[in-house]
Amino acid sequence: MADFFDTFAIASSGLSAERTRLTSIASNMANARTTRTAEGGPYQRLVPTFEAQSLDPFGEALDAATSKVHVASVEREAAPPKRVYDPTHPDAGPDGFVAYPDINVMEEMVDLMTAQRAYDANANVVEATRDMAMTAIGIGK
Predict the structure, then answer these.
(1) For residue range 10-64, what is the model confidence (pLDDT) as tens digits?
(2) Long-range pairs for 60-66: beta carbons < 8 A, 24 or more residues apart
(3) With contact defined as beta carbons under 8 Å apart, do 43 and 37 qualify?
(4) Are 62 and 125 spatial neighbours (Cβ–Cβ below 8 Å)?
(5) Integer Cα distance of 78 and 88 in angstroms
(6) CA distance 7 to 18
(7) If we measure between CA atoms, which residue out of 13, 7, 11, 76 comes closest to residue 50?
(8) Dihedral, CA atoms, 32, 36, 37, 38, nearest 10 degrees?
(9) pLDDT digits over 123-134, tens only?
């Protein structure tokens, strides 16, 4: 049967996953104009992929149905770069075009806000579970 520790495990997995998402967003925003990387070419947007992990597939119905979140991978998006004509840029090709990352800062800001809300929601679950556990301990006194 699900207990307080299961709830903490689920919420903490959500906090960890959203922290990874926030880190990816921060990297994307910081490198939105990076035209040169160690691998060559412009920076490529990072996209984390989340997947559900069963809390206890062999437990009772509720345990089998509840899931933690797991970051399956953080991959580079394979979108082609944006080409901008700027013959004075040091990374301009012979045709005068510069390859910039295909990163929309406004979309990253929206992702940032949704990640922050999800992080806050998971933090609220941890806080509410802690309060409930403390109340339960107080009842036993």
Answers:
(1) 999 999 999 999 999 999 999 999 999 998 889 999 999 999 988 776 767 666 6
(2) 60/1, 62/1, 62/2, 63/1, 63/2, 63/6, 66/2, 66/6, 66/10
(3) yes
(4) no
(5) 27
(6) 17
(7) 13
(8) -170
(9) 999 999 999 888
- Residue 2: pLDDT band (50, 70, 90) is low
Cα(93)–Cα(103) distance, rounded to whole angstroms? 20
Look at strands 46-54 and 82-85 and give their pairing.
unpaired
pLDDT at residue 1 in the model: 43
pLDDT of 59 reads: 67
Q: Which residue intervals of 1-141 are DSSP H helices?
A: 4-30, 61-65, 105-139
Count of CB atoms situated within 10 Å of the CB of 102: 16
* Average pLDDT rounded to a whole number, residues 94-99: 94
Name the residue ranges covered by the structural domains of the chain.
Answer: 4-139
SS3 14: helix
